[in-house]
Amino acid sequence: MKKKKNGIGFFVLMVFFCLILIVMSAVLTVLCFQMQAEVKESAEKINELQQKTDSLIEKIDSMQQTETVLPPSPAEEQAAETAGQTQNSGGNADGGELAPAELEEGSGAASVDALSPGEIIPAENISVLSMDNYFKAYEITEGDEIYNRILGKSYQINDSVALADLRYMKVIHYNFNGEIQVGELIVNANLVGDFSSAFQQLFEHKYQIHSMYLVDNYWTGDAVSTDVASIDVNNTSCFNYRVKTGGESLSLHAYGCAIDINPQQNPYVWYEGDSLVCAHDNAVEYLDRTSGAAHMITHEDLCYQIFTGLGFTWGGDWDSPKDFQHFEKNIF
Fold it and tell me: DSSP secondary-structure letter at 151?
């Protein structure tokens, strides 16, 4: 009887072990399937990553390859020479359209962040692959360098124009010597895109601007006479918290919505009888708007075409007075 019980116990034990083996086998099978699925998924991800890497390598190789350039024909050389002469004048005096400048890729200054207004940049230092870095806008905050520079001068504490409504910009432009120079201006925050686009287009066509500094560089003690002092040195400027010339209401310059470009060649004028007169002696030779002199803004000029194309109006289209330097965009 005892042996029979021992036999039953042994059988039960064997059955128990068999069940354990079956369960372990099932668990291992499930784990194997899971591992196979994970391995397959990982392999697919690795393959996808490899494809992206190969594609990126192909693009880099393509960019590094030197293109074969055919020598220009005599006609092309003549056209290029003519275009170069026109570009160096800073405008299209002959009524023709300026061609975009072609700069070779440079490895120097990566942006205007660390560059000072008025600084000259060698053309070979301009990176044509990142042109946006040369046309940048910055917030002005209380206590920062720009705020301390303009407070009590071009910027007055007031109820009409808040500091948050303005942006300080650095841009590059060609000066009258054909050099690439860093310019600065303060504009309305809502017009940063327009001004950036305008000056980038002007730069790409080698349009010349004599200088571009904040009017605070020429501060005389009040905003109106400071504007005169800035104009007397042919300085291009935008923001200046002041009233309209000959008026009492705020100028759009006070909101950063107007800009004066190359004011010596494009003076503020009025009629006395049938004759145009101006307040600046250095601009008298530019009263004849049909002379075709360099840097004069006309309807055929690239500067006029770019700014009016962005929705600005031109003071040269006013009846009297006329302000040939002036472009404005009323966003109010």
Answer: B
What whole-number distance in Å separates Cα of residue 262 and Cα of residue 254?
19
Contacts of 1 (CB under 8 A, 6+ apart): none
Instruction: With both helix axes pointing from N to C terminus, report the angle between 302-309 and 192-204 in degrees, rounded to the nearest 10.
Output: 150
Angstrom distances, CA of residue 204 to CA of 87, 220, 235, 251: 10, 35, 21, 30
Please report, as a single letter, which amino acid is at residue 112: V
Please report, as a single letter, which amino acid is at residue 182: V
Token pair in block for residue 229: 């002092």
Query: What span, in angstroms and rounded, lies between the C-alpha atoms of 23 and 80?
Result: 85
pTM summary value = 0.70
Neighbouring residues of 267: CB distance < 8 A, sequence distance ≥ 6: 278, 279, 280, 283, 286, 287, 324, 325
Give which of 239, 191, 189 is closest to 215, Cα–Cα.
239
Residue 324 CB-density burial (10 A; 0-12 exposed, 13-18 middle, 19+ buried):
buried
The per-residue pLDDT for 288 is: 95
The CB-side HSE value for 296 (13 A sphere, CA atoms) comes to 18
Inform me whether the pLDDT recorded for 65 exceeds 90: no
The whole-angstrom separation of Cα 49 and Cα 37 is 18
pLDDT beyond 90 at 77 = no
Strands (E), 124-165: 135-139
Question: 183 with 194: CB under 8 angstroms?
Answer: no
For residue 97, pLDDT over 60 is answered with: no
Q: Say how far apart CA 114 and CA 276 lie, in whole Å.
A: 44
Spatial neighbors of 314 by CB under 8 A, at least 6 apart, are 297, 304, 307, 308, 324, 326, 327
Q: Cα–Cα distance between 210 and 261 in angstroms, integer?
A: 9
**Closest C-alpha to 245, from 216, 267, 276:** 267
Among residues 201, 190, 216, the alpha carbon closest in space to that of 137 is found at 190
Residue 247, number of CB atoms within 10 A of its CB:
8
